[in-house]
Design goal:
single chain, mainly alpha, 79% helix
């Protein structure tokens, strides 16, 4: 009802044309067989032992967004900044830098930073009991949550850009802002549940750490440091491109506060 009011549509939100039901049913008629075929194919290619072995399935699906070396994403991320600074200040022209920045930030989160943390933990964090474990856990989470992190980076940056392109139409801009808030909440909930499930799967690792002398107070510090680093990175990397875009538009008086 709220969306109808904002868009000045004078009709009942409960009324749906007949063709909506037709196209929805058609969509499910196509979607369900495709899902069944994919699942059947997966079951056919694996035996019972493989299907019951959770680690085997998880490792078997270890696919990176793009098959590039970890350093390549640093170049992509820097390229996006260069594009922002060199293209003419125009919201429509910022679509490509935003997409490049989204890919660069996602790649850094799921590949470059985990690779860097792995090196750091083996070379410089051996004597730091808290950072050694928390950064190892963080590296593992970033790699395993690669799909949702990629979606998060692309959706966050591109939806902010879409809101900027609609700034001259108050109604559409408001609807886009509401859509961004709702999708952000849904992504945040998905991220928290995914993170919680990963933490619950660390039972054996935590037991082993307890056996070698880690105390409850240290576990609390480890989790706090890991969670703050994880969400800090998620905010900082995509946020960098959003801040650059908004600052350039403000300096050029394309938008105003």
């Amino acid at each position: 009802k709220m969306m109808f009011i904002l868009m000045h549509i004078h009709a009942s939100p409960f009324f749906q044309p007949l063709h909506c039901f037709f196209y929805t049913g058609l969509f499910f008629l196509v979607l369900i067989p495709v899902i069944l075929l994919i699942d059947a194919g997966f079951v056919y290619r694996h035996n019972i032992a493989d299907l019951l072995h959770e680690d085997h399935i998880r490792n078997d699906s270890n696919v990176v967004m793009l098959h590039l070396p970890s350093s390549a994403y640093i170049i992509i991320a820097l390229l996006a900044i260069v594009m922002f600074l060199t293209v003419p200040v125009d919201i429509d022209r910022y679509a490509m830098p935003c997409m490049v920045g989204a890919i660069g930030s996602a790649g850094m989160l799921v590949k470059t930073i985990p690779h860097f943390l792995k090196k750091q933990t083996s070379l410089h964090l051996i004597d730091n009991k808290i950072a050694l474990v928390s950064m190892s856990f963080l590296s593992e989470v970033l790699k395993k949550a690669k799909h949702i992190i990629t979606i998060y980076c692309i959706a966050t940056i591109m939806m902010i850009h879409m809101i900027m392109t609609l700034k001259d139409d108050p109604v559409e801009s408001r609807v886009a802002a509401q859509a961004y808030i709702i999708t952000s909440l849904l992504r945040s909930v998905s991220m928290m549940y995914l993170y919680r499930s990963m933490i619950l799967k660390r039972k054996m690792a935590i037991i082993n750490l307890y056996k070698i002398g880690y105390m409850l107070s240290q576990f609390k510090k480890i989790i706090k440091q890991e969670v703050m680093s994880f969400f800090g990175l998620l905010i900082a990397l995509p946020g960098l491109y959003i801040i650059i875009m908004l600052l350039l538009l403000l300096i050029n008086h394309t938008i105003s506060l």
